[in-house]
Prior knowledge:
Layout: H1 24-44, H2 49-56, H3 60-88, H4 90-109, H5 114-142, H6 148-176, H7 185-188, H8 190-204, H9 218-237, H10 245-272, H11 285-315, H12 320-326, H13 328-348, H14 351-374, H15 384-406, H16 414-446, H17 448-465, H18 470-488, H19 498-504, H20 516-563
Amino acid sequence: MARNPAAPTAMLASSEPHETDPRRWIVLGVVLTASFMVLLDISIVNVAIPSVQRDLNASYAQIQLVIALYSMAYALLLITGGRLGDIFGRKRLFMIGMGGFTLASALCGFAQSPEMLIASRVLQGGMAALMYPQVLAQIQVTFPPRERPAAFAILGTIIGLATITGPLLGGLLIQGDILGLQWRPIFLVNLPVGIGSVTAAAFLLHESRAPQATKLDPIGVALVSAALFMLVYPLIEGRDAGWPLWAYVSMVASLPVFVVFLVYERAKTRRDDSPLVDMRLFQDRGYLAGIFIGMAFFSGIGSFFLVFSLYLQIGLGFSALEAGLTTLPFALGSFIASAASARLAGRLGRRILSLGSVVIALGIVGVIWTIRLAGVDIKGYDLAPALFVCGIGLGFTIAPLLNVILAGVDRAMAGSASGVFSTVQQVGAAMGIALIGVIYFGQIGGGADTASAAVAPRLRAEVATLGLPAAVADRVVAAFTVCFHDRANEKDPTVVPDSCRAAQHLALPAGGGASQAQVAAAGAAIGRVAAAEATRALKVDFSDAVQRSLLFNLAVFALTFFLVPFLPNPRRGAQGAPGGH
């Protein structure tokens, strides 16, 4: 069997401290403060999307990359981050990861272009992957066995609080527009916290290493990174580029690269028993089913928050704070259900995952139904019941998922299995964001004519109230329809198409008793009416698009439900196993 410790739940029994550290709870506070900041940065970005778009003139594809590439960088270096800590020291890697994350946060906060923000987010994700495995390792080596459950319970609470406060804190910071910095404080707020965490770690954390740490696998990291990038990047950029040949070639070529990775990993296992991913794990059918469940489930979660944030802020015009408050019931439901899941999992076994999948699917149906029923005049509180149900489903699934999946895995491979599964979660989230972008933005462009047709009667009536001839109303509606179509299909949402520029200058022809001043006044009045109806059409378009796009989420949660029976059923009382933290 492999000795692979992996991240993020390595089995570190060999690193037990000889005596209990009297400062262990202070140490816990230091590492959990850092963890809170890293987890916060995952959820806080969603509410900043419109502000980033406006300030940096970012396209939809670039916004997807800001979110997806963070998850990919984090995923691909998680296992390597755990091994680096075992080899070179967990305190050292914690400080390097936390310092690098703080520097990357500063680069994000001062980004002058979408490209700079994307690169800085990749650096953030990589540094988070170096730091986070050391948090779990520090808990293992600092606390005696009898106190570890309490320490891990506090970690679980911190994860829940980060999920709840991320959108809300992001909304408050953006709404406050501190020093006129708009979205930038959501990253810059990390600087004092990061500097304080690194300083405290230097004085409080003890250094520890694994006595028999396995070797690094840089070639494995490079191969799987290349394969995933070749698959995900075209999905994100393909639409903006008009689906050129290179996009299809890249996606097809990713398959043989994956094959090369698998062959190399098998060879490395035979050579020195230190692969990035131990292929023997996939001989366990239950674990293999769990990998597919994790990838599907987290692709549904990551993609939901992307499209829902765009719907609220760009489609409905909610402020960042309103969007954060709207999603609060989801986070509260998740927090409550996560706390209750341990007791339920002991009774239901793997069936709690089936229950969670059904509940979150019902919540998604509730979101779709609420949007359809309330229409463009929907308020944030209208969505609260459905979002709370979604959160309940998430809490019932996400908390016991790892323990159920590990139930059939040899305990000697638990660290490797949990590290691979955590990687798959993040890869699933990145792929879900890529796929939902293809669906959602395609729906927005494809539904533009239907949305403009829905408001055309109102627009024509409003123009008539200005006392203008019917021929003018027809010209206005025709120009509005072309402009709205072109705007909805524009790759860069900040660009004003030529058809819209022409429509802005639409006015009555001079002559016929109308002075130039009257013509100008009529043109301004038409512009105001058209702008109001364009806002309404945008709400219609985004509302229709989000309803159709959420069918993707229903499909992946249904897939989760049907895969659950293939999982092992953990023994009663196994939910608190160390491998599940």
